[in-house]
Amino acid sequence: MDWLMGKSKGKPNGKKPPTEEKKQYLEPDYTKVRVVDFDLKELVVLPPEIDLNEWLASNTTTFFNLINLQYSTVSEFCTGDTCPVMSACNTTYYWYDEKGKKTKCTAPQYVDFVMSSVQKLVTDEDNFPTKYGKEFPNAFDSLVKKICRYLFHVLSHIYWGHYKETVAMDLHGHLNTLYTHFIVFIREFNLMDPKETSIMDDLTEALCTPLPQTPQNHVTER
For 29, which DSSP code? Predict the structure, then answer.
């Protein structure tokens, strides 16, 4: 399965781009909220004696499940009316099917395409082998990179389009931790070109900067 990614910058559907609005997710009162208070890099470093592909497969599958779960918390707010295009910042993402046909779709349609496609891949023994002695495909790293690009799009859209709802449900600490964990992972193994993640560089800098040490655990704020 060879599905691709397309994007363009500009005003989606001629509407005023939300980049002119203040980014709530960058406010210090929100960026400091996490569900863990240790260095997430410790979780992504390849352990001794573990095969690289096995490690990539395990983490990629885990991130797929976690990001899918995180999106499910805001899916009722992500509709064709509220999100007529799949966007984050001033970037609109297009879906390309297996035949290379470009499709401009709503955000919920795009996310459904992503989750359905990734689900098929991670449960396919030829792509993500789980049986002992089964070899990983030669282009496995490229496959992981494609999946990570799509998962990044979903995370970015949650921040850009549904952060207010996430805060209202007190789930922004989980989202911040998941995003930071994911970014640290893709950086550790060079799974995405920095240009592809640059639209969220301000958030990445805010979340990946170590928090000041405090006497109390800042697991959550209520």
Answer: H
Q: What is the pLDDT of residues 68-120, one digit of tens each?
A: 999 999 999 999 999 999 999 889 999 988 888 888 899 999 999 999 999 99
Q: How many CB atoms within 10 Å of residue 206?
A: 19
DSSP code, position 123 = T
Q: What is the pTM of this model?
A: 0.83
Q: 92: which strand partners?
A: 8, 87
Q: What is the C-alpha separation between 48 and 87, in angstroms, rounded?
A: 39
CB 191 within 8 A of CB 185: yes
Q: Which one of 1.10.760.10, 1.20.1260.10, 2.40.128.710, 1.20.140.30 gives the CATH number of domain 24-208?
A: 1.20.140.30
CA separation for the pair 90, 2 (Å, rounded)? 26
Is the model more confident about 88 or about 14? 88
For the annotated binding site for Zn(2+), the residues are: 78, 83, 157, 162
Domain coordinates of the chain in residue numbers?
24-208
Query: Which of 103, 31, 124, 114 is CA-nearest to residue 78?
Result: 114
pLDDT at 211: 54
Phi and psi of 209, rounded to 5°? -80, 125
Report, as an integer, the average pLDDT of 125-130: 94
Binding residue ranges:
78, 83, 157, 162
- By the 8 A CB rule, do 206 and 30 touch? no
